[in-house]
Prior knowledge:
By secondary structure, the protein is an alpha/beta fold. It has three domains: 38-184, Rossmann fold (3-Layer(aba) Sandwich); 189-352, NAD(P)-binding Rossmann-like Domain (Rossmann fold, 3-Layer(aba) Sandwich); 389-422. It is 43% helix and 17% strand. The chain contains 14 helices and twelve strands. The strands form two sheets. A seven-stranded mixed beta sheet has the order 9-8-7-6-10-11-12, sandwiched between helices. It has a five-stranded mixed beta sheet with strand order 1-2-4-3-5. Strand 11 (322-324), helix 10 and strand 12 (345-347) form a beta-alpha-beta unit. Helix 4 crosses helix 5 (151-165). The longest helix has 26 residues, at 375-400. The model is unreliable at 269-276 (pLDDT under 50).
Amino acid sequence: MNNKINPFKNVLKKLHETTKALGLEESVYKKLSTPDAVLEKTIIITLDNGETAEFKGYRVQFNNARGPYKGGIRFHPEANLDEVKTLALLMAAKCAVANIPLGGSKGGIQVDPKSLSKDEMERLSRAWVRAFFENIGPDKDIPAPDVYTTPQIMAWMVDEYSKIAGKETPAAFTGKPLDKGGSAGREFSTSQGGYYVLRELAKKLKLKPESTTVAVQGFGNVGYHAARILHDQGFKVVAVSDSKGGICDLRSRGMDPRHIMEVKKKRGAIEGCYCVGTVCDCENYKKITNKELLELPVDVLVPAAMENQITEQNAGKIKAKAVIELANGPITPEADAMLFDRGIYVVPDILANAGGVIVSYFEWLQNLKNEHWSEKDVLTRLEKIMIKEFENIWTISKVKKIDLRSAAYILSIGRIVEAGMK
Length: 422
Ligand code: NAD
């Protein structure tokens, strides 16, 4: 990641461009670019050795014009307000593109989760809920997992929330384990949504899955499931990578992501860990760097790892015909413009990876109605939304002769403004 790039400035730049394109007053941009609430609290827990430790906890509620705030909680040593604000704004835009009745928020704790025991993690998770109890809730703001927060953490959080509320309140959090009110399909919903948009784009570009080569950057929750689903749907996944590097076999009929995951697992733990076990342990393939992976002569590139991977430095070297942004913010605005000029289609994060929040919305609905939907039912509903909104942004981009990201922001910000702002 390029740390010099300020992600909040990037997303505000896009927002400003969009309000201008929509002919909105500067005052509307000001309102849209200002979070409704920026909450920062000190969270104190007792460590296993009896000492106390203090952490910074955040919740940014950006915009709830379309419904209750919705957004994950990130546990990361570098979690900071700028990052949380950026992600909260992206959540508002994402929910509006998906046309689900939710707003945008995000939370976090500045902590290295690997430095805490399981009991300490539980105490920290419960303490976050106590700190922000008054600000969240099923009708107000519904948190979910994000980087380094898991279904188990959501289970602790919803339990703490229910205790304070004095009643079982499963709809207060999403991303819970299935037996605690989680939704079928949530685990791979982001990748499944990404597959639906790639399938639709491939039809437009007349790319047949069996002759379409794909490189996937990142082999965590999103990258692995994306590679697995695309492989199962007949696309040729010819390169994958993780934080340690990548592997490729351009001549192959496609790699088997399940086999690569098995090898990676044999060498070490996977969950929430960037370093132990790596795709590079899979010996049958040529080793490449992450930089090389991005520049491979493939048809489709799927960034599914970190932000700011495609910048001014390498945008001129990208050979793919299409990029599906499963990661949040993997392309800088300057690189975005360069890719558009070169005729490369970019399906933007706010649509491409919206599958996760859409199925979170389904989880919330199931909890509110005390229902349980089958995986088939969940995926059918997800597919409908992804196809419809992909078609919408495709049409806007063709009519206005603009890139798909600009089209997605026009659709999204237009919907937020239409809903009215506080
Ligand atoms: P994860 O922690 O499960 O996996 C991240 C992967 O990225 C790991 O394989 C890691 O090795 C790899 N990685 C880390 N640094 C890298 C680097 N410099 N180069 C290449 N690979 C690197 O996280 P995830 O849940 O899969 O999320 C990945 C991205 O997708 C993030 O940008 C996240 O915000 C976004 N996203 C996730 C979801 C979701 O439902 N999980 C939803 C929307 C967006």
